Amino acid sequence: MSDGIFVGGGGQGYGAPQTLLLKYANRHGLIAGATGTGKTVTLQILAESFSAQGVPVFLSDVKGDLSGLGAAGSETFKLHDAFMDRAGKIGFADYGYNAFPVTFWDLYAEQGHPVRTTISDMGPLLISRLLELSEAQEGILNIAFRVADEQGLALLDLKDLQSLLVWVGEHRKELSLRYGNVSTASIGAIQRRLLVLEGQGGERLFGEPALDLSDILRTDLDGRGRINILAADKLMDSPRLYATFLLWLLSELFEELPEVGDPDKPKLVFFFDEAHLLFDDAPKALVDKVEQVARLIRSKGVGVYFVTQNPADVPEDILGQLGNRVQHGLRAYTAKDRRELKQAAENYRDNPSFETEDAIREVGVGEAVTSFLEAKGVPGMAERTLIRPPSSRLGPIDEGDRAILVAASPIAGKYEAAVDRESAYEVLAERAASAARAAAEAEQAEQADDSPSGREYRAARRYSGSRVSRSTSRVRDDGEDAAPSRRASSRRSDSVGTAFAKSFARQIGTQTGRAVVRGILGGLFRAR
């Protein structure tokens, strides 16, 4: 159908077509069900259908199975006969095998184009979530971002943030007077979290060139929407990094895309697989942010589909905004499971032909209870639906085929080479180097003074200065000492503490002094 997506057959004998109307595809959706009930195949056939209708898709390949979207199915496949039988049973007359335009992305740059963002673009809220910071630590991170804005320091990658935090620690007294307490213990805790993130490969996420959103909104020459596949099998080892990246991408789409009102079809459909990772232990501020994005992003032509095992994984305020639903089987082994099963059934408009709760418990693999928005956005009745078979390959493609598709991508070569332009790390490093050079020049000037008073000053045997012009007394023409000027004395006479500070400043320029600077500034001078 030109105005909708055929999902499968429902009703008596599965002959009634179940269609997701394109006009309401941006009203978001849910794909839920226990492990092994067919969620991944449902995601695959929806991605195929949206692509065929000219709608770009973004999804994450958690198990490595969805790379098959880039290759056509085959008559030699073991399930070919079963697929053909199902297509005939549900009235899918146009069924055939086909490949779809795909773009592979990979944070680790191993299975697709590198995907990056900058520290500034992600912002303190999401980075705090990524690092699991406490409220006090998040406050310090906000101070660091404010300082970066005020001083024009670009925060692009992890070393920029690390060096900025060192600077904040060095100036904590001044900053505390303006913004509140800045604790060195909290700064240290943030730095340790950044070190852990770096060890997990998180530094690959931050840098330039950053992702251009227009590259995930592409269509091919035939007008089909490109399917953007994020390789997430390795990324899932760092679930918080995975969830934070997808949430950042969703937020960027919300902030950057223009309002389009009520379009005939979406500009993009975004599938959020393993959606429970987004909400596990999430602070209220973050959940509120997701709710806001889900509520408002549909007016920008973006449909968001959460994929998870149980609808209870999604907060109710967000669940209530998901108009198109595909509920695969849920198994009730415990009292908690039975309560959640009943709750899932209550989210559907009742069908007089069967009990929704029983249907959700009884549907088999490749079958689901579906409900799609109808005319005027009214929720459709629950229907037992036999999901249509996929046209692309079921299962992953091999590495050679993937490499060919990556090389043939329209964005090949755009993101592969990282760019490290001047940012906070380089600016702060130059400031420190300039201070060290100035101290070294001052020390050389002191060393050049070979007068007796200069030697005594360098040996710390005289605290009143090394030059005649710094003396607290003046000699009259008759050879007697003049009374010292009170103003000159107060300005020129150094206390022991001040003399030590000046001595320390001079030592910064020496080899020992430079070692002290490296100790203070941490990794700022570490070779990279």
Query: Per the principal axes of the C-alpha atoms, what is the gross shape?
Result: elongated
Portion of residues in helices? 40-55%
Helix tally?
Answer: 19
β-strand amount:
5-15%
Largest sheet, in brief, is:
12 strands, mixed
The total strand number stands at: 14
The end-to-end distance, rounded to whole angstroms, is: 56 Å
Question: Radius of gyration, rounded?
Answer: 32 Å
| Oligomer type | single chain
Q: What is the residue-averaged pLDDT?
A: 86
By helix and strand content, what is the structural category?
Answer: alpha/beta
Record the strand order, biggest sheet.
2-1-12-11-10-3-9-8-4-7-5-6
Low-confidence stretches: 465-475, 483-528
Structure description:
The protein is of the alpha/beta class and 528 residues long. It is 41% helix and 12% strand. The chain has 19 helices and 14 strands. It has helices spanning 39-52, 80-89, 119-131, 135-151, 158-170, 172-179, 184-199, 239-256, 276-279, 284-296, 316-319, 335-345, 356-362, 399-407, 424-448, 452-458, 486-492, 496-507, 511-521; strands spanning 4-10, 16-21, 29-32, 57-61, 102-106, 113-114, 227-231, 268-273, 302-308, 324-327, 367-371, 383-387, 474-475, 481-482. The strands form two sheets. Strands 2-1-12-11-10-3-9-8-4-7-5-6 form a twelve-stranded mixed β-sheet, with helices on both faces. A hairpin with a 5-residue loop joins strand 1 and strand 2. The chain is elongated. Residues 465-475 and 483-528 have low confidence and may be disordered.
